Amino acid sequence: MLVLMDVADRFGGLMGHVKTPAADERDLLSSYLELHALKPMAGTPQGAGASAFESHCSACHVLPDPGQHSLGDWPAVLKRMQRNMTVMKYAPPSRELMVQIQYFLQQNLPAEPDTASAGTAPVLSGSAGDSGFNASDVFDRGRWMALGPFLLLVFIGLARWWQGRVRP
Description:
Helices cover 50% and strands 0% of the residues. By secondary structure, the chain is mainly alpha-helical.
């Protein structure tokens, strides 16, 4: 990231006008990132959903340790990753593959969850076969709220169109 920023700065802002951080700011950023870095998974993923997890997640970053998040945290993390993929112009996995990835992550949690990320989130359960996992939890929560900004823009566009149409 820092190399790209330096190169962009030297060539007149190829990445927009990004101010390159000073040496002390770089040290501060590095310290923060080292403290909050993604914990990598030890070994090669094995089991149900492992191939979907490995092929899609490793396209952008190191494979995360499933124990880095609690059972109830993984659905929100996966939603965030889907948004990141869309922003980065990377086709998100299908719903079926997302279910496989979430199943893999939740089945490979350590026996005792990490106390830093363990919360009171409910254990996912449902009728999605014998997995004890409700696939709708990955996608349904907040679906209509996510449409709010889109619908607002549609309304504004229609109002502007109508105003232009009404005026002679």
